[in-house]
From TrEMBL:
<comment type="similarity">
    <text>Belongs to the YIP1 family.</text>
</comment>
<feature type="transmembrane region" description="Helical">
    <location>
        <begin position="101"/>
        <end position="121"/>
    </location>
</feature>
<feature type="transmembrane region" description="Helical">
    <location>
        <begin position="69"/>
        <end position="89"/>
    </location>
</feature>
<dbReference type="GO" id="GO:0048280">
    <property type="term" value="P:vesicle fusion with Golgi apparatus"/>
</dbReference>
<keyword id="KW-1133">Transmembrane helix</keyword>
<dbReference type="GO" id="GO:0006888">
    <property type="term" value="P:endoplasmic reticulum to Golgi vesicle-mediated transport"/>
</dbReference>
<dbReference type="GO" id="GO:0000139">
    <property type="term" value="C:Golgi membrane"/>
</dbReference>
<dbReference type="Pfam" id="PF04893">
    <property type="entry name" value="Yip1"/>
</dbReference>
<dbReference type="GO" id="GO:0005802">
    <property type="term" value="C:trans-Golgi network"/>
</dbReference>
<keyword id="KW-0472">Membrane</keyword>
<protein>
    <recommendedName>
        <fullName>Protein YIP</fullName>
    </recommendedName>
</protein>
<feature type="transmembrane region" description="Helical">
    <location>
        <begin position="45"/>
        <end position="62"/>
    </location>
</feature>
<dbReference type="InterPro" id="IPR006977">
    <property type="entry name" value="Yip1_dom"/>
</dbReference>
<dbReference type="InterPro" id="IPR045231">
    <property type="entry name" value="Yip1/4-like"/>
</dbReference>
<feature type="domain" description="Yip1">
    <location>
        <begin position="39"/>
        <end position="170"/>
    </location>
</feature>
<keyword id="KW-0812">Transmembrane</keyword>
Amino acid sequence: GGSYAHVEDEVPLLEELGVDPKQIYRRTMGVMHPFRVEDSTDEDLAGPLLFCLVMGACNLLAGKLHFGYILGWSTLASLGMYWLLNQIIGGGEGIGLNRCGSILGYALLPVVGYSGIVLFLPSKTGMLSKALAVLCVTWSSRKASVGLIQAMPQSEGKRMIVTYPCMMLYTLY
């Protein structure tokens, strides 16, 4: 027979997977304050994955089954922004793929909030819905561009060049 380790000796599952709920909460609250700049040196992807699942659940409640689109688009967007940002920087220290995906994923939170709020609006194409969409896309774009520029100090003077693709990215969600 084999011997099994006792449950008490096992490392907690979240710790083994590298998921830190306190860090996810801290970064989430950092995104929820639109004008607060937060240091985003970590490469956590658990929070962004959770946000994508919540956005997919909101779309499911609206009668749209878009989990694959959301996860696929998030992956392609992270790869595209990673490539674009490293091309903008040129030589020198660029940004890592995980860090880029983490910043873009956490900045997705206002758009996820919009997908939940729009469930309760009487008109999905009305003026209020459109105004909220513009607000959430602008909020997400600002948080992403500030985080990405903070992650790459050599891109300090290129804020609009970083913000424009972020704006296009969050508009497509």
